[in-house]
Amino acid sequence: MIAENFRLLIEKLKYKIAKSEAIWAKTSRDEEFKLHMGKVTILTDCWYDEVSFNKKVDLVILNEDGEKIDGIMISKGEEDFELLSELHTLAKQSYYKIDETFKSIFEELDSNKVIGEKKKHELDDLI
Amino acid sequence: MHNPLYRNKTRSIFIIGLLLVGLLYVEFFDPKDQNIINGITVFGTYLSLFGIIISYLQIKSVSSINLETKLVIEKSLQRMNQLALVADLSKATMMIREIQEQFEHANYRIALARMKDLKVILIQTKHSEICILKTGLISFNKELEELFTDIINLNDYISGTKKKQPNTSKINKNLEILSTTLTEIESKLKNIKHDS
User: Fold this and answer.
1) Which of A97, B22, B41, B109 gives 20 to 30 Å between its CA and that of A26?
2) Given this model, what pLDDT does residue B189 score?
3) Is there a single domain that holds both residue B147 and residue B79?
4) Is B24 on the interface with A (CB under 8 A)?
5) Interface pTM, i.e. ipTM
6) Total structural domains in chain B?
7) pLDDT for B94-135, tens place per residue?
8) Which of A23, A26, A27 best tests the B interface by mutation, with the highest count of B CBs <10 A?
């Protein structure tokens, strides 16, 4: 079970993302996202662990000198995995602007405009 | 105070003052009151007042010399710090090149060790007063954050906490951006003009 301050942090981050008031960035890991605020950086990552053959998710807090000051790592099946996994998914959606993308797709589909683009030269398909 | 011109000026003022006091003494004291006791009182008072004024001027002059010396020392220290900072930035840029080479040869352990060294240098640079005052560090902080997360990710990979290798081309790209920013700061610091 995760500590109460982490639970509170996760809830507050989720609330901030829901209000579109959090700007997440991507790190050098495929599924890791980071959020910088004030003097701390928060990282969240989700990966498949080849040793335990299980999915894992973590949340790490770095201080202004890049030192890990605290963090949690939860494996699938453990208590609170879903809570942290949900935060990771929200961070990912926020970074890729998934909601905005869907919104623009639906707007295009609901309009009377012709969607898609015609190629300049029909011959392009034949080449 | 040791200036001969200043000394002559003081001497002249003293003599003029002495003559003036002598004149006032002769003018305002009745001839029957002009005795040695009164003479000593009047001229003694004048000498005391003159002495107090001279002491005050000397103290003022010494304090202004101290202030000037302090400013010169501060300026020299700042210049020395600036030189040290330029040397550190140059070292950091070389280190980045070395890290990139280690990545090319997949020597991740060495790359990580050098990245940690780089981090130490850059943290010191970040906290340097001159750097903050004269170059502006907003973009540098952002790039430093990237370095911090890259170190953690590489560390997790090497230690086996996370088996999947981080994206080394992204790390290389981050290092390249950092190197460019450091070179810019270094060039700014080199071109700072000093007064005096």
Assistant:
1) B109
2) 82
3) yes
4) no
5) 0.77
6) 2
7) 999 999 999 999 999 999 999 999 999 998 888 876 666 666
8) A27
Asked if B153 has any chain A CB less than 8 Å from its own CB, the reply is yes
Closest CA to A32 of B157, B172, B108: B157
pLDDT, mean over chain A: 91
* B10 assigned to some structural domain: yes
B35 and B93 housed in the same domain: no
CB A27 within 8 A of CB B153: yes
State how far residue B89 is from chain A, nearest Cα, in angstroms. 18
Distance of CA A66 to the CA centre of its chain: 21
What confidence tier does B11 reach under pLDDT thresholds 50, 70, 90?
Answer: confident
Nearest residue to B151 via CA among B122, B177, B118: B118
B148 and B89 in a single domain? The answer is yes
Task: Kindly state the helix (H) or strand (E) to which residue A58 belongs, with its residue range.
Answer: strand A54-62
B110 vs B63: which has the higher pLDDT: B110
* Full residue range of the structural domain in which residue B101 is found: 69-190
Structure tokens at B144: 């430093």
Residues of B in contact with A45 (CB under 8 A): 162
CA atoms within 13 A on the CB side of B160: 3
Q: How far apart are CA A1 and CA A61, in angstroms?
A: 18
Distance from CA of B80 to the nearest CA of A (A): 25
Contact A66 B147 (CB under 8 A): yes
B195 domain residue, yes or no: no
Do residues B143 and B178 make contact, with C-beta atoms less than 8 angstroms apart?
yes
* Residues in CB range of A69: below 8 A, 6 or more apart: A40, A61, A62, A63
Closest CB to A32 among B153, B168, B171? B153
- What's the pLDDT tens digit per position in A80-93? 999 999 999 999 99
As beta bridge partners, residue A42 has: A35, A61
Average pLDDT, stretch A69-82? 94
Residue B123: list chain A partners with CB under 8 A.
65-66
B196 within some domain: no
Domain boundary among B17, B34, B67: B67
